[in-house]
Design brief:
Largest interface: A-B, 14 and 13 residues
GO cellular component, one term (chain B): cytoplasm
Shape of chain A: globular
CATH class of the largest domain in chain A: Alpha Beta
Keywords (chain B): Acyltransferase, Lipoyl, Transferase
CATH class of the largest domain in chain B: Alpha Beta
Strand order of the largest sheet of chain B: 9-18-17-16-12-15
Helix content of chain B: 25-40%
InterPro entries (chain B): 2-oxoA_DH_lipoyl-BS, 2-oxoacid_DH_actylTfrase, 2-oxoacid_DH_E2_comp, Biotin_lipoyl, CAT-like_dom_sf, E3-bd_dom_sf, PSBD, Single_hybrid_motif
Number of strands of chain B: 18
Strand content of chain A: 15-25%
Oligomer: heterodimer
Largest sheet of chain B: 6 strands, mixed
CATH architecture of the largest domain in chain A: 3-Layer(aba) Sandwich
Number of domains of chain B: 3
CATH topology of the largest domain in chain A: Rossmann fold
GO molecular function (chain B): acetyltransferase activity; lipoic acid binding
Number of helices of chain A: 13
Protein name (chain B): Dihydrolipoamide acetyltransferase component of pyruvate dehydrogenase complex
CATH superfamily of the largest domain in chain A: Thiamin diphosphate (ThDP)-binding fold, Pyr/PP domains
Strand order of the largest sheet of chain A: 3-2-4-5-7-6-12
Distance between the termini of chain B: 58 Å
Order of helices and strands of chain B: EEEEEEEEHHHHHHHEHHEEEEEEHHEEEH
Radius of gyration of chain B: 25 Å
Number of helices of chain B: 12
Largest sheet of chain A: 7 strands, mixed
Radius of gyration of chain A: 19 Å
Chain lengths: 327, 422
């Protein structure tokens, strides 16, 4: 089994899907000849040609709109937003058109588009290159939002997103691109969307998180294990719609729950997770549900010190986990 | 400079409040950490409260005679520097430490009675009395995991059991309420002295009512000829005192004999537990020690493993501590049978009240010279009466008679030839 980085797993998933189904095509800014600013589409232009790997103008509304139209006509577009921060001009297309079309057409039409976008901070990118945008879309029925935490999941989930009959937003943490590496099978496997995954079994505290923060939590859990604190970690993988069953099960497991997101705290995906827990788990809870998140200020500061202040880090996760364990 | 609070410490697992009997410091006094600042009387022991900080006393919140709940504020102290010490004490104590000795850390029980929904649910489902559970969480909070462990361990302190016990004693013991609140309040007339019932006196009263109402007492007595023992002790006592620095009392020999006999009659070293009788492995003998108007029953641990000298030493130590009010909880716990030295104040016959939850109590009366008919003539012999009160639920006359006979036999055969005090 080859060792792949997170971004190589993303590329591999697109390559395999394009080989498997000629309706799959890629469009976005600099995705063609350049292979993408992060090299996510590296080699696809050479392999599949300019008809299936299309460079677009700097117009996100158009990238989404063209993709949505193609999808409604039976194609399987993978639209890339160069940075998740740039998705805002396309919000109307995504929310008003892509997510509503199945409902609005009484099931006559669907929109099987995948929109990929790198999100997240810790890369010294400041505003426009560091923000988390999932909460903007996380209350739009008809949409699915997938945020994988490791290379293996990235490949399996992206393939599932491409094959899904409805629009999927696929957010990749840009710091994870070359940070996380692991063995990824070369064969064709798919990880179902909408299913959370237990990344570690434990019985003192439960951490529920997604994206790069899963890695932070795993690091912290490893350290806390030495202190005798046993951590249960649930990776949401799909942040909309949420896997309520898995959330409830994980929360009930220990009764002490820490929710971690890199996004601004108020109104984040974790606020919804917290509500699900309080609706369903009252008599199993042994502590208030805790959230560790970015402060409620615009993300992300440029100064290194301030970026550190804003960002969730393994140390911050560890401190929050220990605090909860001692409660 | 910062002002810190000193609170009533936890003076024993089951102790929930203490009465300030006297302040050892005044406002403006400089004290060092661990210096005693007040004497506190609980229904178990008298103890000193150590200062948690080095600094100057700024205000005494509690007055002498006030009864303060554990964890409640008793005084303020001004501390130099930051309040690091207190936060250190809170956070660094993640390891489980023996509760008794870490006075400072264990006193934060502010979260002891804050129950999470999970804890309340589990307590209901498994009928757990949360008052009897120690919490491992912050501020002494009982965590869900504490209960999970407890349930797994199968030692669940049951609520209904203690309630049952309570209602049982209540139904038996309507006079118990009279202890604190007499129905017809006696009136005080001019010249009468009112002595408030508190602390140890209150505890004695409650224990006596509990013992006499719950335990069906029966009583028996044997007469023992201890002439040889008296001769031996007379011969040894001066040299013993010179060598060891404390007196060789008769009582030590009696305790030794009882410990030996109990080993052979475990029925008497037992306790009533409702649907079963628990025979104790250890032989820990409670001895009654009086001090003005207070009565203590400290314990000689593992008396069966000690020599007469060892027992004599324990008796001296415990009696000294009792007179000085220095007995600790540990000194008072674990007794399995009581030996009471009633002879020390001249009694020749008495009926002891059993020290609940033990099965029996033995009174050692005065040794008196009496003419005894033996070997065809009268002789002046040293005679002593041993009186035994027994819990008739556990014990019957036969086994107790055999036990007393055995104690008698051991004592009558104690002589210089076959008994060593070492």
């Amino acid at each position: 089994m080859p060792v792949m980085s997170y971004i190589q797993a993303v590329t591999q998933a697109m390559r395999e899907e394009m080989q498997r189904d000629e309706k799959v095509f890629v469009l976005g800014e600099d995705v063609g000849k350049k292979g993408g600013v992060f090299k996510a589409t590296d080699g696809l232009y050479d392999e599949f040609g300019e008809q299936r790997v299309i460079d677009t103008p700097l117009a996100e509304s158009a990238i989404a709109g063209v993709g949505i139209g193609a999808a409604m006509y039976g194609m399987r577009p993978i639209a890339e937003m160069q940075f998740a921060d740039f998705i805002m001009p396309a919000v109307n297309q995504i929310i008003s058109e892509a997510s509503r079309i199945r409902y609005r057409s009484n099931n006559d039409w669907s929109c099987p588009i995948t929109i990929r976008a790198p999100y997240g901070g810790g890369v010294h990118g400041a505003l426009y290159h560091s923000q988390s945008v999932e909460a903007v879309f996380a209350n739009q029925p008809g949409l699915k939002i997938v945020m994988p935490s490791n290379p293996y999941d990235a490949k399996g989930l992206l393939k599932a997103a491409i094959r899904d009959e409805d629009p999927v937003l696929f957010f990749e943490h840009k710091r994870a691109y070359r940070l996380l590496k692991e063995e990824v099978p070369e064969d064709d496997y798919v990880i179902p969307i909408g299913k959370a995954d237990v990344k570690r079994e434990g019985d003192d505290i439960t951490v529920i998180t997604y994206g790069l923060c899963v890695n932070f939590a795993l690091q912290a859990a490893e350290k806390l294990e030495e202190e005798g604190i046993s951590t249960h970690i649930l990776d949401l993988r799909t942040v909309y719609p949420l896997d309520q069953e898995a959330i409830i099960e994980a929360a009930k497991k220990t009764g002490k729950v820490l929710l971690v997101t890199e996004d601004n705290k108020e109104g984040s995906v974790m606020s919804e997770v917290s509500a699900i827990i309080s609706e369903n788990c009252l008599f199993d809870l042994d502590s208030p549900v805790q959230r560790l998140a970015g402060p409620d200020v615009p993300a992300m500061p440029y100064a290194h010190t301030m970026e550190k202040f804003f960002m969730v880090s393994p140390d911050k996760v560890e401190a929050a986990m220990r605090d909860l364990a001692e409660f | 400079m910062s002002v810190e609070k000193i609170t009533m410490p936890q003076l024993g697992e089951s102790v929930t409040e203490g009465t300030i009997s006297s302040w050892l410091v005044g406002v403006g006094d400089q004290v060092n950490k661990y210096d005693p600042i007040a004497e506190v009387m609980t229904d178990k022991v008298n103890a000193e409260v150590p200062s948690s900080f080095t600094g100057k006393i700024t205000e005494l919140v509690a007055n002498e005679g006030d009864t303060i709940e554990v964890g409640e504020l008793i005084c303020y102290i001004e501390v130099e520097g930051s309040s690091d010490t207190s936060s250190d004490a809170g956070s660094s104590n993640s390891d489980e430490q023996p509760k008794e000795e870490t006075n400072e850390e264990s006193k934060d029980q502010s979260m002891k009675k804050r129950y999470s929904p999970a804890v309340l649910k589990m307590a209901q489902e498994h009928d757990i009395d949360l008052n009897q559970v120690d919490g491992s969480g912050r501020g002494g909070r009982i965590t869900r995991k504490d209960l999970e462990k407890l349930i797994q361990s199968d030692h669940v302190p049951s609520k209904s059991a203690s309630k049952q016990e309570k209602s049982q004693t209540e139904s038996f013991a309507t006079p118990q309420q009279d202890v604190s609140k007499p129905a017809d309040m006696p009136t005080t007339q001019a010249g009468d002295v009112e002595v408030p019932v508190s602390g140890v006196r209150k505890a004695i009263a409650q224990n006596m009512v509990k013992s006499t109402t719950e335990i069906p007492h029966a009583w028996m007595m044997v007469e023992v000829d201890v002439t040889e023992l008296v001769n031996m002790r007379d011969e040894l006592k001066d040299e013993f005192k010179r060598k060891e620095g404390f007196s060789l009392t008769y009582f030590a020999f009696f305790v030794k004999a009882v410990a030996q006999a109990l080993k052979e009659f475990p029925e008497l070293n037992s306790t009533w537990a409702g649907d079963k009788i628990i025979q104790k492995q250890d032989i820990n003998l409670s001895i009654a020690v009086a001090n003005d108007n207070q009565l203590f029953v400290p314990v000689i641990k593992n008396a069966d493993e000690k020599s007469v000298k060892g027992i004599a030493k324990d008796i001296v130590d415990l009696a000294t501590k009792a007179r000085n009010g220095k007995l600790t909880n540990d000194d008072m716990q674990g007794g399995t049978f009581t030996v009471n030295n009633t002879g020390s104040f001249g009694s020749v016959q008495s009926m002891g009240v059993i020290n609940h939850p033990q099965a029996a109590i033995l009174q050692v009366e005065s040794i008196v010279k009496r003419p005894v008919y033996m070997n065809g003539m009268f002789a002046a012999r040293d005679m002593v009466n041993l009186c035994l009160s027994l819990d008739h639920r556990i014990l019957d006359g036969l086994v107790c008679g055999n036990f007393l006979s055995r104690v008698k036999e051991i004592l009558e055969n104690m002589s210089k030839d076959n008994t060593s005090v070492y």
